Amino acid sequence: MILLITPSSRGPECAACLTAETSQETHWAQSLQAAATHLREETYAVAVIDQLLLETEPEESDQMIEHLGHAFPVYLNFAVTGMERLLREVRLALHRRKREENAAVRTVVEQLNSEMRESLTAVMLSCELAMAVPDVPTPAAEKIQAIDNLARAMRLRLEIN
């Protein structure tokens, strides 16, 4: 979703164009207070902010910016910005956000894989040490071997993925 923040009378036209050209639902906020309300209630991929509002309402700007969350801010002067530039800037912001989300997901997956491999190595080592204990009862040895086999299979799946 896109949040368009501008008092400009072109707001509805710009919002409709953004929706049509990006296939992203676009909400229009005419003031920073309305924008802060939208940002508290919804999650947005991009927030397009009219620079005029930032300059004329600095305190409200700070409050609104605190609510941006993960929305990529795009600052434009609507008095001089045409529709083509608006679309280009929003598409770039959507692309950057997607790229950063993908990078964050890859980082988390790599970290989880690393932690899982470490834990599985510890389980396999513990199984080997338990099997080395003299006079382990056969049913216990079979259970330990089953755990070791499962840990090895899980580790192999992690290495394949």
Question: Could you characterize the architecture of this molecule?
Answer:
- With 161 residues, the protein is of the alpha/beta class.
- It folds into two domains: 2-106, Response regulator (Rossmann fold), CATH 3.40.50.2300; 108-160.
- It is 68% helix and 11% strand.
- The protein has helices at residues 11-22, 32-41, 51-56, 58-66, 83-132, 138-160, and strands at residues 2-5, 26-29, 46-50, 72-76.
- Helix 1 (11-22) packs across helix 5 (83-132) and helix 5 (83-132) packs antiparallel against helix 6 (138-160).
- The radius of gyration is 27 Å and the shape is rod-shaped.
- 20% of the residues are buried.
Q: Report the sheet-strand fraction.
A: 5-15%
- Distance between the amino and carboxyl termini: 32 Å
Sheet bearing the most strands, described?
Answer: 4 strands, parallel
Which range best describes the helical content: under 10%, 10-25%, 25-40%, 40-55%, 55-70% or over 70%? 55-70%
> Which CATH top level class of the largest domain fits?
Alpha Beta
- Side by side, the strands of the main sheet go 2-1-3-4
What is the SS-derived class? alpha/beta
Number of domains: 2
**What's the architecture of the largest domain, going by CATH?**
3-Layer(aba) Sandwich
Question: What's the mean pLDDT score?
Answer: 94
Number of strands: 4
Give the SSE order as H and E letters.
Answer: EHEHEHHEHH
Radius of gyration equals: 27 Å
CATH H-tier superfamily of the largest domain: Response regulator
CATH level 3 topology of the largest domain? Rossmann fold
Shape: rod-shaped
Poorly predicted runs? none
The total of helices stands at 6
